[in-house]
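Troubleshooting log. The previous run stalled partway through. Resubmitting the same two chains, unchanged.
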Amino acid sequence: MALLEVDRLRIEFPTRRGVLVAVDDISFSIDQGEVLGVVGESGAGKSITGAAIIGLLEPPGQIAHGTIRLQGQQINGLPNEAMRRIRGAKIGVIFQDPLTSLNPLYTIGRQLVQTITTHTDLTTSQARDRAIDLLNEVGIPAAKRRIDSYPHEFSGGMRQRVVIALALCAKPGLIIADEPTTALDVSIQAQIISLLRRLCQEHRTAIMLITHDMGVIAETADRVAVMYAGRIAEIGPLRDVVKNPKHPYTVGLMDSIPVIEEENDELAHIKGAMPGLQEIPLGCSFNPRCPDAFDQCRRERPDLMPTGNPNQVAACWKYDGTTNND
Amino acid sequence: MVLYVLKRVLQAAGVMLFVAFISFVLFNYVGDPVNNMVGQEATIEDREALRERLGLNDPVVVQFSRFVAHALEGHFGISYRLQRPVKDLIAERLPATLELVFSSAILALALGIPLGIYTGLHRDTWLSRLILSSSLAGVSLPTFVIGILLIYVFSVSLNLLPSYGRGEVVQITGSWSTGFLTVSGWKAIILPSITLCLYQLTLILRIVRAEMMEVLLTDYIKFARARGLTDRAINFGHALKNTLVPVITVTGLQIGSLIAFSIITETVFQWPGMGFLFIQAVHFADVPIMAAYMVLVALFFVIINLIVDLLYFVVDPRLRIERTVTIG
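Second attempt completed without errors. Output:
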């Protein structure tokens, strides 16, 4: 049984000018200890999916239908108090900006201890010991002394380590990392990514790694889900998606990663832009930009369908058995 | 930190010196003090003698230093109207004003902060809307209207509370008299302190509300929620503490203006405080009292601001670091 199963999740934002569909019928699952990379442009619905999983969708956003199951138990629609007990305890979260994720007025020790005592039966002094262990584990030097420091006394990379320690406080089975390295220097990015990967291997923690950075995905993920305009375009093992992408959007995405050895006058890119939530076209949402689009693409919306590779599915009519041209 | 405090104290002393100068000018150049002191039939020679005796012929700098030296000892001369030392008059009236200001400030904080938190957290409930719209009345109605309204309802119609005065007071240590030890004293302070606190209450309520709403949108609150902390810990710990810096600033300034505003409230309720004394002094152009009042109110403002500056350090650790860095 998968650790996290998301089944036909649809997230809507009712507005005065009608209902905006931010996430449209997406399904995926994450196994224990697995790193699922979720990649896509800004506004593709990645972060909103993460927020929905931990039950912290910003109003007026709401789950219109679909289920989210953690260890087989449905967690969407749980009462607030029950959901609060899951957040932090079973699902940890890491946000983008470590500079603003920590409360500036409390020492990091206090924030760690508070999180630990909220989710465990440890006493304050036991929690403090555990906090020191955690800080050691995420690579804060002189943790015993630094635990009583305030966030502003740490650099950005160190703060993100503290944020990771906070996410790991109650040993959650799943961590949702929403752009965990976007705000960091490139040299720090690599450290944080390898730290995350190492910790999760040691604790058998699964990660849902949300990013727009294919480089980060390539270093970290086991499987990749490519999102486009609120839908999953393609999902499959990292190697297959990178080396042999099936969905035309993924193909374009991989082609637009510049290769240093090749001398190009112009960087490759996908023509056009992702549609806004109000102007998602009929049929496949990618069809106006798709070089392979045909009639059916403009009329009917494709679901994820097998692509020949048993682990890799893509939402593209090219792989529909009835109209398969290959 | 020590250096910072020292700097602030020096600044405060500078402000006080400036206020003292204005009050000195008031003293010496608003009318002729000699005219106020001698009778109609005094000769020019008498006047000159008095001038010489009062030191009014000395250079301005000498006069001003004398004024400051006297002011430091609390001497502001003798009231023209009451023919008593201003020092004694103020000492008699100060407790009444301070007690009034103190109870208003407590009332404003004790009601303003919880109501601000409530309306910040529950934006769209009918209770929030009720609190907010009635708080508008608090800002827009002038103090004397509220005072007269309260007197009409509670003193005249219901006959529950006294409409003027301090009630019975008890003398403790020298000139300090308190109304907090008698039932009639407590009864007497209710209406004036409500009147005086309404404006500050509204202000504190609205600031706490606005700050709460802003802080609740920050990343660290989102991250705190994502860690599964309880609403209580988030709202009253993480969020509230981050709203405190502006609240302290405003409260500090407001306590200063409570003292200043108390003139109106004291007049409406015939409260025997400094404000009342000041208003009477204005009527009679009793310059020594006016000058002393001005210096004293300025002194309160300066002291409160100093305390506010120090409180920032207690609340916000970031300030402590920056200072030690710039010092070291």
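Takeaways: The two ends of chain A are 34 Å apart (CA to CA). The longest strand of chain A covers residues 18-30.
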